[in-house]
Design goal:
10 strands; 4-stranded antiparallel beta sheet; mainly beta
């Protein structure tokens, strides 16, 4: 069984036991988090599709780690003006492990 849920303006497809990085949540490692914005659940039977979300469905996950992604170099250039800027950015993330997908 897998589910598609929404958090941080992004959608993620997960199954029980999966680990993934999502946009940073203000939760410490070891805590559990419950996502209730479930868009789709697909199991052995027909898929459940939300309009826009499935009521009483949830994905429960455990927070494994908080961290930052690899550095991305951002550069800006304007021709004929000697204008050049270089900056780096590291996006913060929360690593989670999916424990349970609850079906209504």
């Amino acid at each position: 069984m897998y589910a598609v849920f929404e958090t941080g303006g992004l959608q993620f497809e997960v199954a029980e036991g999966d680990s993934l990085n999502i946009p940073r949540l203000p939760i410490s490692p070891g805590d559990t988090v419950k996502f209730d914005r479930i868009l789709l659940i697909k199991g052995d039977s027909d898929p459940l599709v939300g309009k826009p979300y499935i009521e009483n469905a949830a994905v429960e996950a455990e927070v494994v780690n908080q961290g930052k992604a690899e550095k991305i170099i951002v550069s800006t250039y304007k021709r004929r003006t000697k204008y050049r800027r270089k900056a780096g950015h590291r996006q913060p993330y929360t690593e989670i492990k999916i424990n349970k997908i609850s079906v209504p």
